[in-house]
Design a protein that fits this description.
About 5% of the residues lie in helices and about 30% in strands. By secondary structure, the chain is mainly beta. The strands form four sheets. A four-stranded antiparallel sheet has the order 3-4-5-6, with no helix packed on it.
Length: about 230
């Protein structure tokens, strides 16, 4: 689903009605994301991705009273498709935008804290517009993938790059748009670019170092490509 080019802060106002103490996101926090009500730490609100919250102040009787608290424009000529679900932690909203950008925003005021721009090269081959579908948070870092097939880890407080790893060659038709998934200290990502004959695969990277841990093709049609990749 593609959302408006501006983000309405009122949709998450309920999540920020109380102060959230600063903390580093742990594996236990991710596991109970569908039960906690002061944050949104995973894409889909929990590993089951049911997007269900136990909060009940917004319901059929009260939803008509919602009004915008603030809006944020993703800016200028880069206002293209918007398909990402924000992550909310420590009172900060982390949301990716088109052209492989990531914003950190004060969830109460809508004030931008920092912005990261991936500075994409010429020649990228996005299949379905230049969208990005979200980020992942773990400990003191925020992770997302880029249209030139790279995985980026940023300091969640400053937006500074911790590491940036090339997953595949964008010149060969690879790209990335999906939100990563964090599992036991591993950043799980899948690639994009099937329209251009790439080898579809799921990969895991060490969240601390960015080193590739394992690689798995996702269909029988990719076994030849996998063999070519792993052959000495």
């Amino acid at each position: 689903m593609t959302f408006s080019r501006t983000f309405a802060g009122s949709l998450l106002a309920l999540l920020t009605t109380t102060a959230i103490p600063a903390f580093a996101v742990t594996d236990a926090d991710l596991l109970k994301d569908d039960q906690s009500t002061g944050d949104v730490l995973t894409n889909g609100l929990g590993y089951k991705a049911q997007r269900f919250s136990p909060l009940d102040r917004i319901n059929k009787g009260t939803v008509k009273r919602l009004v915008p608290a603030w809006t944020l424009s993703f800016g200028g000529e880069k206002q293209r498709g918007q398909e990402s679900q924000p992550i909310v932690s420590d009172g900060t909203l982390y949301v990716t935008a088109s052209y492989s950008r990531l914003f950190a925003v004060d969830a109460r005021t809508g004030q931008e804290k920092w912005q990261y721009d991936a500075r994409l090269p010429e020649g990228i081959l996005p299949c379905c517009d230049v969208v990005n579908r979200g980020a992942a948070i773990y400990k003191d870092r925020i992770y997302f993938t880029t249209l030139d097939a790279q995985l980026v880890a940023l300091d969640k407080n400053s937006g500074k790059t911790v590491w940036r790893k090339k997953m595949e060659s964008y010149a060969d038709g690879y790209s990335n748009t999906a939100a990563p998934l964090i599992v036991k200290g591993k950043v799980i990502v899948g690639n994009s670019g099937g329209e251009f004959g790439i080898v579809g695969a799921v990969k895991a990277y060490d969240a601390e170092t960015g080193e590739e841990v394992w690689y798995r093709p996702t269909s029988r049609a990719t076994w030849a490509g996998w063999a070519a990749r792993t052959r000495p």
